[in-house]
Amino acid sequence: MERKRKVCLFNTVVSSSAKMSKSGGSGGATTKDNAVVSSVINPSTGMPYSQSYYEILEKRKTLPVWQQKDEFLKALKANQCIILVGETGSGKTTQIPQFVLESVNAETPDGKRMMIACMQPRRVAAMSVSRRVAEEMDVRIGEEVGYTIRFEDCSSASKTLLKYLTDGMLLREAMADPLLERYKVIILDEAHERTLATDVLFGLLKKVLRNRPDLKLVVMSATLEAEKFQGYFSGAHCMKVPGRLHTVEILYSEEPEKNYVEATI
Ligand SMILES: Nc1ncnc2c1ncn2[C@@H]1O[C@H](COP(=O)(O)OP(=O)(O)OP(=O)(O)O)[C@@H](O)[C@H]1O
Ligand SMILES: [Mg+2]
């Protein structure tokens, strides 16, 4: 006799309430209207945005950091240092550097090139995240968006505006350029992963911030003890980004299960 199985111990259902407007970031184009889409030009490349740009944009807009985009940009304008604590998957690594780039571009319309560095403690993350961001921005990796890891520099001295790089590489750049003058904003991601290089960088950046009032620093993490960092970078503004909420349905099994994971599926 077949044993009756009540399957799900818990079901997660992503809320469909995050229905997106189909408008593009900068032009109000719709995915349905190809004529309008093609008329919207990507400022980075001077080419029309591709269809996949709009598809990814819709997904990006559902990420929790988008809810606080304006708040973040206001805080970035008003403060030299921001501590951003956001739950995992909220969009810190992929979205925040793009928000920063947008704001820096808007502030320097005269075309003065200012770069943004996003430090990643792991080289694989620097590579894969920069590829994803290049895809999201509809540009080629190594051009407007690039990465630098040990033994591999996938960036362009004349084109790259947003660079993902490892802590070691940022430290190396700081040796040659102690005030990190090519950068307008430095983002330290995964700040809780305290490596020797990141600790030295924290000390170094504290000094650089004093000497370069125009430089901004964003410290990000999912599990950061924000107060400690706030105390270290005295006067830093702290921002919290909540995670995504999922509807959870609880069902009980009528009989004990041998393998609860299997039964759940
Ligand atoms: N390579 C990728 N391909 C497809 N989607 C991706 C990719 N990288 C990230 N994403 C999407 O972007 C979302 C945000 O990712 P992101 O890495 O920015 O989050 P995060 O806040 O930095 O998380 P964490 O605290 O784990 O580092 C992910 O939940 C995922 O949906
Ligand atoms: Mg991240």
UniProtKB/TrEMBL annotation:
EC number: 3.6.4.13
GO biological process: mRNA processing; RNA splicing
The protein's enzyme class: hydrolase
One Pfam family linked to the record: DEAD
Annotated ranges, domain Helicase ATP-binding: 73-242
Any one cellular-component term (Gene Ontology): spliceosomal complex
Reactions the enzyme catalyzes: ATP + H2O = ADP + phosphate + H(+)
InterPro entries membership: AAA+_ATPase (IPR003593), DEAD/DEAH_box_helicase_dom (IPR011545), DHX15_DEXHc (IPR044756), Helicase_ATP-bd (IPR014001), P-loop_NTPase (IPR027417)
Gene3D superfamilies membership: P-loop containing nucleotide triphosphate hydrolases (3.40.50.300)
Keywords: ATP-binding, Helicase, Hydrolase, mRNA processing, mRNA splicing, Nucleotide-binding, Spliceosome
Taxonomic superkingdom: Eukaryota
Gene Ontology MF term list: ATP binding; hydrolase activity; RNA binding; RNA helicase activity
Protein known as: RNA helicase
Organism field: Prunus armeniaca (Apricot)
